[in-house]
Design brief:
about 180 residues, Hypothetical protein af1432, HDIG_dom, HD_domain, HD/PDEase_dom
Length: about 180
């Protein structure tokens, strides 16, 4: 599946512009990590872009989120690797994260929210001026960006990345799509 087709499918299933931007942010982070690990950038990007394709349908039933999305992606003919990564990114299912893609998607998902929230409190409100230190200064503030599960972000250690390096990679990815993200 090409990116423009994936983005179209996403927009057919999500009406909320912020959810679409979140998906693009996760795509950007996943692509940057794929480059870092010398993996298939397109495949990792698609996993990030489509990881929440079922969110509006399942938002009131978190135990169904990502299960329905994985089925949707399977029906669209996406690879088993992408389907499984999408399925296991929701910790509610307590499924093992086996591949680097699984582990990356799980940790990138909440980090993008923390980065966006950090950007929005920056005086310039632009991704290009945010750095790792700025994000890290907010990381331990539990009242800041409450939805960004810090333990899930720290799972970057499953990829043998320390937190600073992980944040740097995802931030660089998001900065590459700052226009599309509107930040």
């Amino acid at each position: 599946m090409k990116r423009n087709e994936a983005l179209q499918k996403l927009k057919e299933n999500l009406n909320n512009k912020n959810l679409i931007k979140h998906s693009i942010a996760v795509e950007a982070g996943m692509e940057e990590l794929a480059k870092h690990f010398d993996k298939d950038v397109k495949k990792w990007g698609l996993a990030g872009l489509l990881h929440d394709i079922d969110y509006e349908e399942t938002k009131d039933e978190p135990n169904k989120h990502s299960i329905i999305g994985a089925k949707m992606l399977e029906e669209l003919g996406l690879s088993d690797e992408i389907v499984y990564a999408v399925k296991v990114h929701n910790e509610a299912h307590d499924l093992p994260r086996k591949s680097e893609m699984d582990k990356a998607l799980y940790a990138v998902d909440p980090l993008t929210g923390l980065i966006v929230a950090s950007t929005l409190i920056h005086p310039e409100k632009k991704l290009d001026v945010v750095d790792v230190d700025f994000v890290m200064n907010r990381f331990d503030e539990t009242s800041f960006a409450r939805g960004a599960n810090r333990e899930q972000i720290k799972a970057c250690n499953e990829l043998d990345l320390d937190l600073d390096d992980f944040i740097e990679l995802v931030l660089v990815g998001m900065q590459s799509k700052s226009d599309e993200l509107g930040l």
